[in-house]
Amino acid sequence: MPEFGTLLLEWRGDVAVLTLDRPESLNAINQAMHAELKQAFDAIEARSELRGLIVTGAGRGFCAGQDLSERKPLPEGHKYDLSLSIEENYIPLITRLTNLGCPTIALVNGVAAGAGASLAVATDMIVATKSARFILAFSKIGLGPDAAISFHLPQRIGSARAKAMMMTAAPIDAATAKDWGLIWEIVPDEGAADEVARLCKWLNSAPTAALRAVRSLVDASGANDLQAQMALEAQTQKALGYTEDYTEGVSGFLEKRAAKFVGR
Ligand code: LHQ
C-alpha cells in the first residue's frame, strides 16, 4: 500500500476509501496531491477484485478545489496557461474516476468547492453530511467551470439550476442538493465515519458487475436513441446473465435466503 502525504488510501475488504488529507486548506488540491492522486488511482486500478471506491475528505471540508496558493499572480506580462494543469491533471483524474470498474461514491463531509465539487459530482452517487455545501466557486475568481462539472451537473439537476449555480457561485446546502436530486442521502455530521463503514459493507456484498452496468447504461442513455438503448440493455443482460452473481441471485430468491454475491 503506497504511503501518501496528502491522501489516505485504505482498503476495507475490496473497497477503496480515498481520503483527501490536507484539512488545513479544506483539502484543496495542490501539485503534490495531483501527483499522489495519480499514484492512488494506479493502485486502485491494479486491484484484482475492486468492488467500490469511496472518496471523502479529512477534517471539516470535502475539497476546496484547486489550491489557489499555487496560482499567485505572476509578474507583469506573465500569465498562467490554465489548460496545462487541466489537461495534465483534471482530465485524467475525472477520466479514471468515471472509467473505474466499480461503483464510486463521494461522501461529502463539508464544503465541496470548485474542482472539489466537480470531483464529487463525477462519482456515481453522493452522500453528504447535513452541513455540507456545494459551491461552484469558479466564477468568483473569474473562471469558467472545469473538471467536467459543466457536463455532469446539467445532467444531474437540469441546465437552469446548473447554470445558476455556476454563474452565482451561491452555496447550495445539503437539503437543497437533495431536493434537486444532486445527492442521494444526507447523514448527520457526526455520522460520516459510520456511513463510510455502512457503504463499504454494502459495496463488499453487492453484485459489482450489475452496479457497473447501471453506470454504463445510464451514461450511454444521453447519446442513444430508444432502440439503441434497448439493444444495449439486451447485450448488458446477456453478459450479466453469465455471471456467478446472477446465478446466485436467482438461487437465493428461490431458496428464500439472502444472496451471497462475489462481485463477478
Ligand atoms: C484554500 C482554498 C483553496 C488554497 C480554502 N486554495 N487554500 C482552478 C485553477 C486552475 C486550473 C484548474 O482548475 C481550477 C478549478 C478550481 O477549483 S477553481 C476554484 C478554486 N476554489 C475556490 O475558489 C474556493 C476558495 N475557497 C473558498 O471560497 C472558501 O475557503 C470556502 C467557501 C471553500 C470555505 O470557506 P470557509 O468555510 O469560510 O473556510 P476558509 O475560507 O476560512 O478556509 C479555511 C482555510 O482553507 C483557509 O486557510 P487559513 O490559513 O486562512 O486558515 C483558506 O485560505 C484555505 N483554503 N480554499 N482553494
Structure description:
By secondary structure, this protein is α/β, with parallel strands linked by helices. The chain has two domains: 7-205, 2-enoyl-CoA Hydratase, Chain A, domain 1; 208-254. It is built from ten helices and ten strands. The chain has helices spanning 31-46, 82-99, 115-121, 149-157, 159-168, 174-179, 192-204, 208-221, 226-241, 244-254; strands at 7-12, 15-20, 52-57, 61-63, 104-108, 111-113, 125-129, 133-135, 172-173, 185-187. A six-stranded mixed beta sheet has the order 1-2-3-5-7-10, with helices on both faces. It starts with 6 loop residues before the first strand and ends in a 10-residue tail after the last helix. 39% of the residues are buried. Bound molecules: ligand LHQ.
Shape: globular
Order of helices and strands: EEHEEHEEHEEHHEHEHHHH
Relative helix content:
40-55%
DSSP helix count?
A: 10
Q: What is the CATH homology-level superfamily of the largest domain? A: 2-enoyl-CoA Hydratase, Chain A, domain 1
What are the salient characteristics of this protein?
single chain, 264 residues, alpha/beta, 2-enoyl-CoA Hydratase, Chain A, domain 1, 2 domains, four-stranded mixed β-sheet, 10 helices, 16% strand, globular, binds ligand LHQ
